Recover the amino acids of this structure.
Protein backbone atom coordinates (compact mmCIF):
# COMPACT_ATOMS: atom_id res chain seq x y z
CA UNK A 1 0.00 0.00 0.00
CA UNK A 2 1.50 3.42 -0.96
CA UNK A 3 2.74 5.57 1.90
CA UNK A 4 3.51 8.81 0.06
CA UNK A 5 0.54 11.22 -0.38
CA UNK A 6 -0.99 11.91 -3.77
CA UNK A 7 -2.72 15.20 -2.77
CA UNK A 8 -1.78 18.19 -0.65
CA UNK A 9 -3.06 18.43 2.91
CA UNK A 10 -5.69 21.24 2.96
CA UNK A 11 -5.31 24.13 5.41
CA UNK A 12 -7.07 23.60 8.72
CA UNK A 13 -10.46 25.24 8.15
CA UNK A 14 -11.60 25.69 11.74
CA UNK A 15 -10.24 26.91 15.06
CA UNK A 16 -11.34 23.59 16.50
CA UNK A 17 -8.58 21.99 14.40
CA UNK A 18 -5.79 24.22 15.74
CA UNK A 19 -3.41 24.26 18.68
CA UNK A 20 -3.05 27.77 20.08
CA UNK A 21 -0.87 29.24 22.83
CA UNK A 22 -2.51 32.23 24.49
CA UNK A 23 -0.54 34.34 26.92
CA UNK A 24 -0.61 37.82 28.39
CA UNK A 25 -0.26 39.86 31.53
CA UNK A 26 -2.33 38.51 34.44
CA UNK A 27 -4.02 41.90 34.63
CA UNK A 28 -5.63 41.56 31.19
CA UNK A 29 -9.31 41.05 32.06
CA UNK A 30 -12.73 42.63 32.40
CA UNK A 31 -12.70 45.70 34.61
CA UNK A 32 -14.59 48.52 36.30
CA UNK A 33 -13.90 52.12 37.14
CA UNK A 34 -12.28 52.83 40.48
CA UNK A 35 -15.32 54.84 41.64
CA UNK A 36 -17.57 51.76 41.84
CA UNK A 37 -18.87 51.15 45.37
CA UNK A 38 -18.99 47.74 47.05
CA UNK A 39 -20.61 46.78 50.35
CA UNK A 40 -18.40 45.37 53.09
CA UNK A 41 -20.67 42.62 54.54
CA UNK A 42 -18.83 42.73 57.88
CA UNK A 43 -19.81 46.30 58.72
CA UNK A 44 -22.23 47.47 56.01
CA UNK A 45 -20.01 50.34 54.93
CA UNK A 46 -19.27 51.17 51.31
CA UNK A 47 -15.76 50.95 49.90
CA UNK A 48 -14.51 52.25 46.57
CA UNK A 49 -13.26 49.63 44.11
CA UNK A 50 -9.96 51.48 43.84
CA UNK A 51 -9.43 51.38 47.61
CA UNK A 52 -10.50 47.73 47.86
CA UNK A 53 -7.99 46.62 45.23
CA UNK A 54 -5.10 48.69 46.54
CA UNK A 55 -5.62 47.97 50.24
CA UNK A 56 -7.61 44.69 50.18
CA UNK A 57 -9.54 45.42 53.36
CA UNK A 58 -12.03 42.58 53.37
CA UNK A 59 -14.89 40.63 51.81
CA UNK A 60 -17.52 41.59 49.24
CA UNK A 61 -21.01 40.41 48.42
CA UNK A 62 -21.39 37.71 45.78
CA UNK A 63 -24.53 36.16 44.30
CA UNK A 64 -25.14 32.46 44.80
CA UNK A 65 -28.01 30.20 43.78
CA UNK A 66 -31.55 31.61 43.69
CA UNK A 67 -30.17 35.15 43.76
CA UNK A 68 -29.03 34.91 47.37
CA UNK A 69 -26.20 37.23 48.35
CA UNK A 70 -23.39 36.03 50.58
CA UNK A 71 -20.09 37.29 51.94
CA UNK A 72 -16.84 36.13 50.34
CA UNK A 73 -13.28 37.43 50.29
CA UNK A 74 -11.78 37.82 46.79
CA UNK A 75 -8.76 35.66 46.00
CA UNK A 76 -7.20 38.30 43.74
CA UNK A 77 -7.30 42.09 43.53
CA UNK A 78 -6.34 43.48 40.12
CA UNK A 79 -5.40 46.98 38.96
CA UNK A 80 -4.93 47.54 35.24
CA UNK A 81 -3.52 50.27 33.06
CA UNK A 82 -5.86 53.12 31.99
CA UNK A 83 -8.55 51.98 29.58
CA UNK A 84 -11.68 53.27 27.87
CA UNK A 85 -14.65 53.09 30.23
CA UNK A 86 -18.33 53.24 29.31
CA UNK A 87 -21.05 54.70 31.52
CA UNK A 88 -24.09 52.42 31.81
CA UNK A 89 -27.31 53.95 33.18
CA UNK A 90 -30.52 52.08 33.93
CA UNK A 91 -34.23 52.82 34.18
CA UNK A 92 -34.10 53.04 37.98
CA UNK A 93 -31.23 55.54 37.86
CA UNK A 94 -28.36 53.23 38.73
CA UNK A 95 -25.05 53.62 36.92
CA UNK A 96 -21.65 52.03 36.64
CA UNK A 97 -18.48 52.49 34.57
CA UNK A 98 -17.13 49.33 32.91
CA UNK A 99 -14.95 48.24 30.03
CA UNK A 100 -16.68 47.07 26.86
CA UNK A 101 -16.09 43.39 27.58
CA UNK A 102 -17.16 43.31 31.23
CA UNK A 103 -20.02 40.79 31.65
CA UNK A 104 -23.40 41.74 33.15
CA UNK A 105 -26.04 39.29 34.33
CA UNK A 106 -29.14 39.32 32.12
CA UNK A 107 -32.27 37.20 31.82
CA UNK A 108 -30.45 35.20 29.12
CA UNK A 109 -27.25 34.74 31.14
CA UNK A 110 -23.98 36.63 31.24
CA UNK A 111 -23.38 39.14 28.44
CA UNK A 112 -20.45 41.52 27.87
CA UNK A 113 -21.28 45.20 27.86
CA UNK A 114 -20.48 45.35 24.13
CA UNK A 115 -23.48 43.07 23.45
CA UNK A 116 -25.98 45.04 25.53
CA UNK A 117 -28.43 47.42 23.90
CA UNK A 118 -30.94 49.98 25.08
CA UNK A 119 -33.89 48.28 26.72
CA UNK A 120 -31.97 45.13 27.65
CA UNK A 121 -32.38 44.12 31.27
CA UNK A 122 -29.43 43.65 33.63
CA UNK A 123 -29.46 42.36 37.19
CA UNK A 124 -29.27 44.77 40.11
CA UNK A 125 -29.91 44.13 43.79
CA UNK A 126 -33.52 44.74 44.82
CA UNK A 127 -32.97 43.59 48.40
CA UNK A 128 -29.75 43.16 50.31
CA UNK A 129 -29.44 40.47 52.98
CA UNK A 130 -29.28 41.37 56.66
CA UNK A 131 -25.80 42.86 57.01
CA UNK A 132 -23.60 42.72 60.10
CA UNK A 133 -24.02 46.42 60.91
CA UNK A 134 -23.05 47.04 64.53
CA UNK A 135 -22.19 50.74 64.33
CA UNK A 136 -23.95 52.69 67.04
CA UNK A 137 -24.41 56.24 68.24
CA UNK A 138 -27.10 58.04 70.20
CA UNK A 139 -30.50 58.74 68.65
CA UNK A 140 -30.06 62.49 69.09
CA UNK A 141 -26.99 62.68 66.85
CA UNK A 142 -28.69 60.51 64.21
CA UNK A 143 -31.68 62.87 64.17
CA UNK A 144 -29.56 66.03 64.07
CA UNK A 145 -27.49 64.77 61.14
CA UNK A 146 -30.56 63.69 59.16
CA UNK A 147 -32.35 66.97 59.80
CA UNK A 148 -29.37 69.16 58.88
CA UNK A 149 -28.41 67.12 55.81
CA UNK A 150 -31.98 67.42 54.53
CA UNK A 151 -33.13 70.89 55.67
CA UNK A 152 -30.07 72.54 57.13
CA UNK A 153 -27.72 75.26 55.97
CA UNK A 154 -24.14 74.08 56.48
CA UNK A 155 -22.23 76.58 54.35
CA UNK A 156 -21.65 79.05 57.21
CA UNK A 157 -19.73 78.71 60.47
CA UNK A 158 -22.91 77.88 62.37
CA UNK A 159 -25.54 75.34 61.36
CA UNK A 160 -29.08 76.56 60.60
CA UNK A 161 -32.24 74.43 60.53
CA UNK A 162 -34.93 75.67 58.15
CA UNK A 163 -37.88 73.28 58.65
CA UNK A 164 -41.09 75.04 59.72
CA UNK A 165 -43.21 72.08 60.92
CA UNK A 166 -43.56 72.83 64.68
CA UNK A 167 -43.56 69.16 65.70
CA UNK A 168 -40.39 68.52 63.71
CA UNK A 169 -38.85 71.76 65.02
CA UNK A 170 -39.44 70.65 68.62
CA UNK A 171 -37.92 67.23 67.92
CA UNK A 172 -34.84 68.87 66.42
CA UNK A 173 -34.41 71.35 69.28
CA UNK A 174 -34.75 68.58 71.88
CA UNK A 175 -31.99 66.60 70.15
CA UNK A 176 -29.72 69.67 70.07
CA UNK A 177 -30.34 70.32 73.78
CA UNK A 178 -29.43 66.69 74.53
CA UNK A 179 -26.05 67.26 72.83
CA UNK A 180 -25.34 70.23 75.12
CA UNK A 181 -26.11 73.03 72.63
CA UNK A 182 -29.04 75.38 72.19
CA UNK A 183 -31.20 76.70 69.34
CA UNK A 184 -31.78 80.39 68.76
CA UNK A 185 -34.62 81.58 66.54
CA UNK A 186 -34.10 84.33 63.98
CA UNK A 187 -36.02 85.74 61.01
CA UNK A 188 -34.27 85.63 57.64
CA UNK A 189 -34.49 88.24 54.87
CA UNK A 190 -37.65 86.63 53.51
CA UNK A 191 -39.40 86.91 56.86
CA UNK A 192 -39.20 83.17 57.60
CA UNK A 193 -38.26 81.98 61.08
CA UNK A 194 -35.29 79.59 61.27
CA UNK A 195 -33.15 78.33 64.14
CA UNK A 196 -29.40 78.58 64.55
CA UNK A 197 -27.39 76.15 66.66
CA UNK A 198 -24.88 77.58 69.09
CA UNK A 199 -22.91 76.37 72.06
CA UNK A 200 -24.20 77.37 75.47
CA UNK A 201 -22.49 80.30 77.12
CA UNK A 202 -18.87 79.47 77.80
CA UNK A 203 -19.01 76.16 75.91
CA UNK A 204 -18.03 75.11 72.42
CA UNK A 205 -20.57 74.22 69.75
CA UNK A 206 -20.79 70.42 70.04
CA UNK A 207 -22.96 69.92 66.93
CA UNK A 208 -20.47 71.80 64.76
CA UNK A 209 -17.77 69.51 66.13
CA UNK A 210 -19.71 66.45 64.98
CA UNK A 211 -20.41 67.99 61.57
CA UNK A 212 -16.72 68.77 61.15
CA UNK A 213 -15.81 65.21 62.14
CA UNK A 214 -18.00 63.81 59.37
CA UNK A 215 -16.83 66.32 56.74
CA UNK A 216 -20.19 68.11 56.53
CA UNK A 217 -19.20 71.68 57.39
CA UNK A 218 -18.98 74.32 54.68
CA UNK A 219 -21.10 72.34 52.21
CA UNK A 220 -23.59 73.86 49.83
CA UNK A 221 -26.85 72.02 49.22
CA UNK A 222 -25.71 70.21 46.07
CA UNK A 223 -22.53 69.05 47.86
CA UNK A 224 -24.27 67.31 50.77
CA UNK A 225 -23.87 63.58 51.29
CA UNK A 226 -24.67 60.84 53.79
CA UNK A 227 -21.59 60.16 55.97
CA UNK A 228 -19.99 56.75 55.64
CA UNK A 229 -20.73 55.71 59.22
CA UNK A 230 -24.50 55.80 58.55
CA UNK A 231 -24.14 52.76 56.24
CA UNK A 232 -22.69 50.81 59.18
CA UNK A 233 -25.35 51.74 61.74
CA UNK A 234 -27.67 49.17 63.23
CA UNK A 235 -30.94 48.76 61.36
CA UNK A 236 -32.91 50.65 64.01
CA UNK A 237 -30.61 53.67 63.85
CA UNK A 238 -30.47 53.51 60.05
CA UNK A 239 -34.27 53.52 59.86
CA UNK A 240 -34.38 56.48 62.26
CA UNK A 241 -31.97 58.38 60.01
CA UNK A 242 -34.04 57.68 56.88
CA UNK A 243 -37.26 58.53 58.72
CA UNK A 244 -36.04 62.01 59.62
CA UNK A 245 -34.44 62.51 56.21
CA UNK A 246 -37.73 61.76 54.41
CA UNK A 247 -39.64 63.83 56.97
CA UNK A 248 -37.79 66.88 55.65
CA UNK A 249 -37.09 66.23 51.95
CA UNK A 250 -39.69 63.53 51.29
CA UNK A 251 -43.29 63.83 50.13
CA UNK A 252 -46.42 61.71 50.35
CA UNK A 253 -48.34 62.21 47.12
CA UNK A 254 -52.11 61.93 46.78
CA UNK A 255 -51.55 59.24 44.12
CA UNK A 256 -49.98 57.04 46.78
CA UNK A 257 -46.41 57.52 45.64
CA UNK A 258 -43.59 58.60 47.92
CA UNK A 259 -40.84 60.88 46.65
CA UNK A 260 -37.57 62.36 47.88
CA UNK A 261 -35.88 65.34 46.23
CA UNK A 262 -32.51 67.02 46.65
CA UNK A 263 -30.12 69.19 44.69
CA UNK A 264 -27.43 66.67 45.73
CA UNK A 265 -27.55 63.85 43.18
CA UNK A 266 -24.99 61.92 45.20
CA UNK A 267 -27.23 61.93 48.27
CA UNK A 268 -30.26 60.74 46.31
CA UNK A 269 -28.21 57.82 44.98
CA UNK A 270 -27.08 57.00 48.52
CA UNK A 271 -30.70 56.99 49.68
CA UNK A 272 -31.64 54.60 46.87
CA UNK A 273 -28.95 52.18 48.01
CA UNK A 274 -30.05 52.37 51.66
CA UNK A 275 -33.66 51.68 50.67
CA UNK A 276 -32.52 48.54 48.80
CA UNK A 277 -31.29 47.21 52.14
CA UNK A 278 -34.94 47.08 53.18
CA UNK A 279 -36.19 45.62 49.90
CA UNK A 280 -37.63 48.94 48.70
CA UNK A 281 -37.23 49.50 44.96
CA UNK A 282 -37.05 53.14 43.88
CA UNK A 283 -36.43 55.09 40.68
CA UNK A 284 -34.27 58.18 40.27
CA UNK A 285 -34.94 60.82 37.67
CA UNK A 286 -32.97 63.98 37.00
CA UNK A 287 -34.41 67.41 37.74
CA UNK A 288 -33.61 70.33 35.46
CA UNK A 289 -33.87 74.09 35.90
CA UNK A 290 -33.52 76.37 32.88
CA UNK A 291 -32.05 73.49 30.89
CA UNK A 292 -29.36 72.64 33.45
CA UNK A 293 -29.21 69.70 35.87
CA UNK A 294 -30.58 70.98 39.16
CA UNK A 295 -30.77 67.82 41.26
CA UNK A 296 -32.58 64.50 41.40
CA UNK A 297 -35.88 63.05 42.56
CA UNK A 298 -36.36 59.56 43.95
CA UNK A 299 -39.74 57.86 43.47
CA UNK A 300 -41.26 54.89 45.28
CA UNK A 301 -44.25 53.94 43.15
CA UNK A 302 -45.11 50.22 43.32
CA UNK A 303 -47.76 49.36 45.93
CA UNK A 304 -45.63 46.78 47.73
CA UNK A 305 -42.66 49.17 47.88
CA UNK A 306 -44.76 52.06 49.22
CA UNK A 307 -46.24 49.83 51.93
CA UNK A 308 -42.82 48.45 52.74
CA UNK A 309 -41.50 52.00 53.16
CA UNK A 310 -44.38 53.13 55.38
CA UNK A 311 -44.09 50.00 57.54
CA UNK A 312 -40.32 50.00 57.93
CA UNK A 313 -39.21 53.64 57.54
CA UNK A 314 -42.19 56.00 57.74
CA UNK A 315 -42.34 59.73 58.52
CA UNK A 316 -42.50 61.96 61.58
CA UNK A 317 -44.95 64.77 62.25
CA UNK A 318 -47.74 65.77 59.88
CA UNK A 319 -46.38 63.62 57.02
CA UNK A 320 -46.82 60.53 59.19
CA UNK A 321 -50.58 61.22 59.25
CA UNK A 322 -50.67 61.49 55.45
CA UNK A 323 -48.66 58.29 55.10
CA UNK A 324 -51.11 56.40 57.32
CA UNK A 325 -54.01 57.54 55.12
CA UNK A 326 -52.12 56.34 52.03
CA UNK A 327 -51.51 52.99 53.70
CA UNK A 328 -55.22 52.49 54.39
CA UNK A 329 -56.11 53.38 50.80
CA UNK A 330 -53.51 51.05 49.32
CA UNK A 331 -54.86 48.11 51.30
CA UNK A 332 -58.14 48.62 49.44
CA UNK A 333 -56.72 48.57 45.90
CA UNK A 334 -55.08 45.93 43.78
CA UNK A 335 -51.43 46.33 42.90
CA UNK A 336 -51.07 47.83 39.43
CA UNK A 337 -48.68 46.27 36.98
CA UNK A 338 -45.32 48.00 36.70
CA UNK A 339 -42.46 47.84 34.23
CA UNK A 340 -40.21 46.55 37.00
CA UNK A 341 -39.05 42.96 36.49
CA UNK A 342 -38.31 41.71 39.99
CA UNK A 343 -37.43 38.14 40.92
CA UNK A 344 -37.00 37.84 44.68
CA UNK A 345 -33.92 39.84 45.72
CA UNK A 346 -32.97 40.60 42.09
CA UNK A 347 -34.35 43.31 39.83
CA UNK A 348 -33.75 43.06 36.08
CA UNK A 349 -33.34 46.75 35.31
CA UNK A 350 -33.64 48.17 31.78
CA UNK A 351 -30.53 49.72 30.23
CA UNK A 352 -31.33 53.37 29.54
CA UNK A 353 -28.05 54.56 28.02
CA UNK A 354 -24.49 53.44 27.27
CA UNK A 355 -21.98 56.21 26.59
CA UNK A 356 -18.16 56.44 26.48
CA UNK A 357 -17.13 58.18 29.69
CA UNK A 358 -13.36 58.42 30.22
CA UNK A 359 -10.00 56.71 30.00
CA UNK A 360 -8.83 55.79 33.49
CA UNK A 361 -7.16 53.01 35.51
CA UNK A 362 -9.47 50.02 35.80
CA UNK A 363 -9.91 47.39 38.50
CA UNK A 364 -11.21 43.87 38.93
CA UNK A 365 -11.64 41.11 41.52
CA UNK A 366 -11.40 37.33 41.40
CA UNK A 367 -14.09 35.63 43.49
CA UNK A 368 -13.78 31.85 43.73
CA UNK A 369 -16.72 29.50 43.05
CA UNK A 370 -19.37 32.13 42.22
CA UNK A 371 -17.08 34.34 40.08
CA UNK A 372 -19.28 37.40 40.54
CA UNK A 373 -19.59 40.35 42.88
CA UNK A 374 -21.91 43.29 43.54
CA UNK A 375 -20.79 46.86 42.77
CA UNK A 376 -23.03 49.96 42.57
CA UNK A 377 -25.88 47.47 43.19
CA UNK A 378 -25.07 45.71 39.85
CA UNK A 379 -24.32 41.98 39.72
CA UNK A 380 -21.04 41.71 37.80
CA UNK A 381 -18.90 38.81 36.63
CA UNK A 382 -15.30 38.19 35.72
CA UNK A 383 -14.80 35.61 32.92
CA UNK A 384 -12.02 34.16 30.82
CA UNK A 385 -11.52 34.96 27.16
CA UNK A 386 -11.26 31.31 26.14
CA UNK A 387 -14.55 30.40 27.82
CA UNK A 388 -16.23 31.67 24.64
CA UNK A 389 -14.51 29.07 22.47
CA UNK A 390 -16.80 26.57 20.74
CA UNK A 391 -17.66 23.68 23.09
CA UNK A 392 -14.86 24.48 25.54
CA UNK A 393 -13.86 22.21 28.42
CA UNK A 394 -11.31 23.62 30.86
CA UNK A 395 -8.60 21.48 32.40
CA UNK A 396 -8.03 23.87 35.31
CA UNK A 397 -4.54 23.40 36.73
CA UNK A 398 -4.79 26.46 38.97
CA UNK A 399 -7.58 27.82 41.19
CA UNK A 400 -9.57 30.93 40.40
CA UNK A 401 -10.78 30.15 36.89
CA UNK A 402 -12.63 33.39 36.20
CA UNK A 403 -15.69 31.97 34.51
CA UNK A 404 -19.06 30.89 35.77
CA UNK A 405 -20.66 29.10 32.85
CA UNK A 406 -17.89 26.77 31.70
CA UNK A 407 -17.31 23.03 31.90
CA UNK A 408 -14.34 22.60 34.20
CA UNK A 409 -12.20 19.66 35.31
CA UNK A 410 -10.02 20.48 38.34
CA UNK A 411 -6.48 19.24 37.69
CA UNK A 412 -4.37 18.84 40.82
CA UNK A 413 -1.75 16.42 39.48
CA UNK A 414 -0.34 14.93 36.28
CA UNK A 415 -2.39 11.81 36.96
CA UNK A 416 -5.54 13.96 36.92
CA UNK A 417 -4.51 15.38 33.56
CA UNK A 418 -3.81 11.92 32.12
CA UNK A 419 -7.22 10.69 33.27
CA UNK A 420 -8.98 13.69 31.72
CA UNK A 421 -7.07 13.29 28.45
CA UNK A 422 -7.95 9.60 28.29
CA UNK A 423 -11.65 10.37 28.68
CA UNK A 424 -11.48 13.16 26.11
CA UNK A 425 -9.77 10.88 23.59
CA UNK A 426 -12.65 8.38 23.81
CA UNK A 427 -14.85 10.97 22.10
CA UNK A 428 -17.95 10.24 24.18
CA UNK A 429 -18.76 13.92 24.73
CA UNK A 430 -19.78 17.06 22.85
CA UNK A 431 -16.71 19.18 23.56
CA UNK A 432 -14.87 20.76 20.63
CA UNK A 433 -12.10 22.70 22.36
CA UNK A 434 -9.77 21.62 25.17
CA UNK A 435 -8.36 24.47 27.26
CA UNK A 436 -5.42 23.85 29.62
CA UNK A 437 -5.30 26.74 32.08
CA UNK A 438 -2.42 27.08 32.74
CA UNK A 439 0.06 25.04 30.72
CA UNK A 440 2.75 26.27 33.15
CA UNK A 441 1.19 24.30 35.99
CA UNK A 442 0.68 21.29 33.72
CA UNK A 443 4.45 21.19 33.13
CA UNK A 444 5.03 21.55 36.88
CA UNK A 445 2.69 18.60 37.56
CA UNK A 446 4.50 16.57 34.91
CA UNK A 447 7.83 17.25 36.60
CA UNK A 448 6.46 16.28 40.02
CA UNK A 449 5.01 13.08 38.54
CA UNK A 450 8.37 11.98 37.11
CA UNK A 451 10.20 12.81 40.35
CA UNK A 452 7.73 10.69 42.33
CA UNK A 453 7.95 7.88 39.82
CA UNK A 454 11.75 7.71 39.96
CA UNK A 455 11.89 8.57 43.68
CA UNK A 456 14.23 11.53 43.30
CA UNK A 457 14.01 15.11 44.54
CA UNK A 458 15.25 16.86 41.40
CA UNK A 459 15.66 16.13 37.70
CA UNK A 460 19.42 16.49 38.06
CA UNK A 461 19.48 13.54 40.48
CA UNK A 462 19.23 11.27 37.45
CA UNK A 463 22.63 11.04 35.75
CA UNK A 464 23.59 12.58 32.39
CA UNK A 465 20.55 14.89 32.24
CA UNK A 466 18.28 11.90 32.01
CA UNK A 467 15.73 13.43 34.41
CA UNK A 468 15.16 16.49 32.23
CA UNK A 469 14.80 14.31 29.15
CA UNK A 470 12.22 12.03 30.78
CA UNK A 471 10.12 15.01 31.93
CA UNK A 472 10.22 16.66 28.51
CA UNK A 473 9.44 13.41 26.68
CA UNK A 474 6.41 12.76 28.89
CA UNK A 475 5.17 16.35 28.54
CA UNK A 476 5.60 16.28 24.75
CA UNK A 477 3.98 12.85 24.46
CA UNK A 478 0.75 13.94 26.14
CA UNK A 479 0.51 17.32 24.38
CA UNK A 480 1.16 15.70 21.00
CA UNK A 481 -1.57 13.15 21.63
CA UNK A 482 -3.99 15.94 22.55
CA UNK A 483 -3.00 18.01 19.51
CA UNK A 484 -3.75 15.11 17.15
CA UNK A 485 -7.26 14.64 18.52
CA UNK A 486 -10.06 16.19 16.40
CA UNK A 487 -10.48 19.08 18.83
CA UNK A 488 -9.04 22.53 19.23
CA UNK A 489 -6.32 22.80 21.88
CA UNK A 490 -5.84 26.09 23.74
CA UNK A 491 -2.85 26.41 26.04
CA UNK A 492 -2.96 29.32 28.50
CA UNK A 493 0.11 30.97 30.02
CA UNK A 494 1.04 34.29 31.59
CA UNK A 495 3.62 36.81 30.41
CA UNK A 496 7.00 37.84 31.77
CA UNK A 497 9.74 40.21 30.70
CA UNK A 498 13.24 38.94 29.93
CA UNK A 499 16.35 40.88 29.09
CA UNK A 500 17.94 39.95 25.78
CA UNK A 501 21.57 40.85 25.17
CA UNK A 502 22.95 41.16 21.64
CA UNK A 503 26.15 42.47 20.10
CA UNK A 504 24.54 45.89 19.70
CA UNK A 505 23.02 46.17 23.17
CA UNK A 506 20.23 44.98 25.44
CA UNK A 507 16.45 45.08 25.08
CA UNK A 508 13.41 43.75 26.92
CA UNK A 509 11.23 41.04 25.40
CA UNK A 510 7.89 39.67 26.60
CA UNK A 511 7.55 35.88 26.50
CA UNK A 512 5.31 33.21 28.07
CA UNK A 513 6.14 32.31 31.67
CA UNK A 514 6.78 28.68 30.71
CA UNK A 515 10.17 27.20 31.68
CA UNK A 516 12.54 27.30 28.72
CA UNK A 517 12.40 23.56 27.99
CA UNK A 518 8.60 23.49 28.09
CA UNK A 519 8.46 26.67 26.01
CA UNK A 520 10.49 25.06 23.21
CA UNK A 521 8.19 22.04 23.18
CA UNK A 522 5.03 24.16 23.05
CA UNK A 523 6.32 26.60 20.43
CA UNK A 524 7.37 23.72 18.23
CA UNK A 525 3.87 22.28 18.01
CA UNK A 526 1.38 25.18 18.11
CA UNK A 527 -0.30 26.76 15.08
CA UNK A 528 -0.54 30.17 16.74
CA UNK A 529 1.20 32.08 19.50
CA UNK A 530 -1.09 34.94 20.51
CA UNK A 531 -0.04 37.69 22.90
CA UNK A 532 -2.78 39.63 24.72
CA UNK A 533 -1.60 43.19 25.25
CA UNK A 534 -2.57 46.83 25.70
CA UNK A 535 -2.21 49.02 22.61
CA UNK A 536 -1.63 52.73 23.24
CA UNK A 537 -2.21 55.26 20.46
CA UNK A 538 -3.15 58.92 20.01
CA UNK A 539 -6.61 59.99 18.84
CA UNK A 540 -7.44 62.77 16.38
CA UNK A 541 -7.46 65.31 19.21
CA UNK A 542 -4.21 64.01 20.65
CA UNK A 543 -6.00 62.20 23.49
CA UNK A 544 -4.50 58.87 24.52
CA UNK A 545 -6.48 55.83 23.36
CA UNK A 546 -5.88 52.49 25.07
CA UNK A 547 -7.23 49.24 23.61
CA UNK A 548 -6.90 45.59 24.57
CA UNK A 549 -5.57 43.69 21.60
CA UNK A 550 -4.29 40.30 20.45
CA UNK A 551 -0.90 40.47 18.75
CA UNK A 552 -0.41 37.74 16.17
CA UNK A 553 2.84 38.47 14.30
CA UNK A 554 6.48 38.00 15.37
CA UNK A 555 8.20 40.98 16.96
CA UNK A 556 11.56 41.78 18.48
CA UNK A 557 9.79 42.84 21.67
CA UNK A 558 7.29 40.04 22.22
CA UNK A 559 6.69 36.45 21.16
CA UNK A 560 3.84 35.89 18.70
CA UNK A 561 3.14 34.08 15.45
CA UNK A 562 0.46 32.72 13.14
CA UNK A 563 1.39 29.71 11.02
CA UNK A 564 -1.97 29.87 9.22
CA UNK A 565 -1.11 33.34 7.88
CA UNK A 566 -4.77 34.32 8.15
CA UNK A 567 -4.81 36.83 10.98
CA UNK A 568 -4.12 40.57 10.86
CA UNK A 569 -1.27 41.87 12.98
CA UNK A 570 -3.57 43.04 15.78
CA UNK A 571 -7.15 42.13 16.70
CA UNK A 572 -9.38 43.63 19.37
CA UNK A 573 -9.32 41.45 22.50
CA UNK A 574 -12.81 40.11 21.92
CA UNK A 575 -13.38 36.46 21.07
CA UNK A 576 -16.05 37.28 18.49
CA UNK A 577 -13.67 39.68 16.74
CA UNK A 578 -10.94 37.04 16.81
CA UNK A 579 -13.31 34.44 15.36
CA UNK A 580 -14.50 36.85 12.65
CA UNK A 581 -10.92 37.69 11.67
CA UNK A 582 -10.03 34.01 11.35
CA UNK A 583 -13.17 33.04 9.44
CA UNK A 584 -13.14 36.03 7.09
CA UNK A 585 -9.67 35.06 5.92
CA UNK A 586 -10.43 31.34 5.74
CA UNK A 587 -11.21 31.51 2.04
CA UNK A 588 -8.23 33.74 1.21
CA UNK A 589 -4.91 32.34 -0.03
CA UNK A 590 -2.74 31.31 2.89
CA UNK A 591 0.72 32.85 2.88
CA UNK A 592 3.52 30.47 3.73
CA UNK A 593 5.40 31.37 6.89
CA UNK A 594 8.53 29.72 8.15
CA UNK A 595 7.94 27.75 11.31
CA UNK A 596 11.18 28.99 12.75
CA UNK A 597 9.84 32.52 12.87
CA UNK A 598 7.25 31.46 15.40
CA UNK A 599 9.72 30.10 17.90
CA UNK A 600 12.37 32.77 17.92
Amino acid sequence: MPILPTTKTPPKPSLSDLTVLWYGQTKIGKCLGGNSLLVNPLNGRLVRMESLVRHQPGPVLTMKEAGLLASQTPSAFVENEPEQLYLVKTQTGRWIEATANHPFLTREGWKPLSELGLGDRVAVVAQYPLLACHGDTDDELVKILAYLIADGSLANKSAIFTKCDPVVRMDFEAAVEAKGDECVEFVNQKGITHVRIRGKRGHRNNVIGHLRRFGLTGLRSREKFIPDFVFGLTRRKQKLFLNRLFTCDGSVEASGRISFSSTSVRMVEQVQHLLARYGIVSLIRDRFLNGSLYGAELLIAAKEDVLRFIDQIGFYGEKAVKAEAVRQNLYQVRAAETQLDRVGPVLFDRVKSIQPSRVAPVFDLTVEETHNFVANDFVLHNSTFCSQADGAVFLATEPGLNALEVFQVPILSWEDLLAACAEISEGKHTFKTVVIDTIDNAYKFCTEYILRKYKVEHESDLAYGKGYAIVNNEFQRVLTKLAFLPYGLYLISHAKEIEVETRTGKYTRIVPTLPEKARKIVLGMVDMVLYCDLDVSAGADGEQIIRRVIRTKPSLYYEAGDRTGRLPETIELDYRKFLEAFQSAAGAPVKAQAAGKQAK
Notes: The radius of gyration is 31 Å. Residues 400-404, 588-600 have pLDDT under 50 and may be disordered.
